[in-house]
Amino acid sequence: MFFLCFRNAQTLLKMSVTSLARILKSFSAPISEEHGWGIIHQACVALLELETSAEPLYLVETTSQLLLTDDGSVHHRS
């Protein structure tokens, strides 16, 4: 697990981020169908937020490239 820091106005926000691969490895089991759909939904939300961004978009090919925040959302750097 690693931490990303963002400056938001005058406060510094620390967000814990981990890959889906690390989550799967730590549980030694696949995720449930419900969790799978939740991750798909969060990935779509992240894509919609990036739609108007000037940042380049990349294809996520492995579970190690899919970064999840501690609140369960997909991190925009995935």
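(the above was protein one; protein two follows)
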Amino acid sequence: MSTPITLKWGKQSLNLTVQRGMSGSDLKQQIQALTNVPPPRQKILCPKLWKGAIQDAATVPDDIPDNTKITLIGTVDTL
């Protein structure tokens, strides 16, 4: 089941739809497609749902409410 969430990245707020139960790794790939921040440079925080940054092997909780706000800390690679 899909759930709309809000991704806060710096001063930007981006809308994103996630699948309940998807892995942290899949979430990071989806965020990379939206922001161009590579997964190794991402820290995804949501204190209401998990402690610290989400790990690649962790899953998005099945009970994630609609319009949950998560925070991305990370920068785009520079060449």
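Reviewer note on protein two: The first strand starts at residue 2 and ends at 9.
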